[in-house]
Every structure is written in C-alpha cells, then in structure tokens.
Amino acid sequence: MSGSTELPRGSEGSPSMASRFADVSNRISTLAGSYKTFMLAIAVILVWAVSGPIFKFSNTWQLVINTGTTIITFLMVFLIQNTQNRDAAAVHLKLDELINALEAADDRVIAAESIPEEKMAEWKEHYAELSESQDTIEKDVKELRESLSKR
Questions:
Q1: What one-character-per-residue DSSP string does 81-110 give?
Q2: pTM of model > 0.85
Q3: pLDDT higher than threshold 90 for residue 40
C-alpha cells in the first residue's frame, strides 16, 4: 500500500473544492491550536482594552471586539467540526483495517457507526458480557496456577 497523501483531483486535474477546504481547514485548525495564536489573541485583547480610554469606551469600541470575536467564533465552529469529522473518519478507517486484519474479530463491527442506537446498545451489552466472562476465565486460570504451584 502506498503512503501517498495526494489530494483528490477535480475534472481539470486541479484539487477539488472539498479537498482544498479540507487542506485549508486542517492548516487553520493546527494554527488556531498553537501557543503563538493564543499569544496573538491575548495581545489583540490587551491592545483593545488599552485603547478603551482613547476611544472613550464608546459603543463603536465595544462593537469592534464583539463583531470580531463573533465572526471568528462562527467560522471556527465549521472548521473545527470539519477537522473532527475527518479525524473521526480516519480513526474509523484504521479500526476497520485492524478488525479486518484479525481473523477472530467479528467483521460486522466494522459498520458499527452506521447501526441504530438500539442495536449498538445490544452489541455493547454483548461485549460487556464477553469481557466479564474473560475476567472470570483469567481469575480461574490464576487460581489454578497458584494451587498447582503450591503442590
């Protein structure tokens, strides 16, 4: 399997709009999460606060920070959601590959994210029971080993 991370191409051979958005949103999310961006945000707030007396704490002065933060928050919601969706999809694909690679695994679990919640609850209960029985087996094996070692 190749390790290519090339963007999907549109009809003219250029990256598609969706792949360009994914690339930009990933870069912005990475940048937004950096300490440098946090320090920049602190600096902007400090400059705004210090400029209050200059603008006599006017409505316009307040409107600048309110409008700016509202717009940034609005856009960041979509960028963060896009990044989380792609990250979740990547984790699902990786888990699907692991499930597929294990012979003893139940391949039906690969599609777990698309089943109804009621069915998911049934599966969860089933795997909880398997886990409990596994714990019981391990406890029994441990006790058996201890009793055999005392002989």
A1: HHHHHHHHHHHHHHHHHHHHH-TTS-GGGG
A2: no
A3: yes
